[in-house]
Input
Amino acid sequence: MILIHWLRALAALPFLWLGKIALMLKQPVAGRLLAISWHIGGVGQTGRLAIQALNDPNDPFLAMSTAQTWMQRCPRAEVGAIGGVLAMQCGEMDIAAEFLRDSRAAGDDPKGMADLLEMQLAAHTPDAGSYRALVRSLSERRDLSPNVSRLVIAELMMADLLAGRFEDAERRARHLEQIEETVEAAHVLWAVGEHRGDERLARHYAARAAASADSERARWLCSGLVAHVALGRREEADALHAALREADPALAAQLDGLLASPGEAQG
Output
């Protein structure tokens, strides 16, 4: 059995490499090559890449249906997770929830794709409290993937900032900075500097945040908006909010719910 698995993995590799090269070159054949690799090797991450490459942004239903078929034949957490994301894009929240259930049932999920899908589903519910409850629950776990762990820390950090818990927000921001420099952490530390009247700290992190204004515009607008709200700078916050609604309406709508009941998550 181990030998058969090894041989299948070996046979899938050339198609995986060619598919990744085609994906980097934005060639239409990438999806087909990655799909062949997936069917031979059954590796969940390859299946996720194949679904993403096959997806037509103008018609995500086809890629969603493909993910459903693949989950029936060879359930993998990563395939279920990308299927759930596509279902959300199609407005099929019930189907997305089914993908989440099947993704968790599939077992091995080293990148925490099911957790990420669950967070996205919770973020798109009308009740902001359900999202915060999930973040608190995830913060108590010790088996999170690095990607999910960073996201949870960032969410708790922004909740602390909105609630005026500047010291807690700074602690989380500095923790996050040790893992990865992010625009969210930079905006939080800028706000901390402004709150304390520490011009050196504020100036340093203002420059750090500004460096991401173009490359990560939606995230820059979102975290900047939260920072200005926390500091009570309503005019600047309103301008950022308007720009965010134009750049990413879905993210703006999600943030509206969180701003309506700020700072509840305290993991």
Q: What stands out?
A: The chain is about 75% helix and 0% strand. Residues 2-24 form the longest helix (23 residues). The radius of gyration is 21 Å. The domain at 145-260 is CATH 1.25.40 (Serine Threonine Protein Phosphatase 5, Tetratricopeptide repeat).
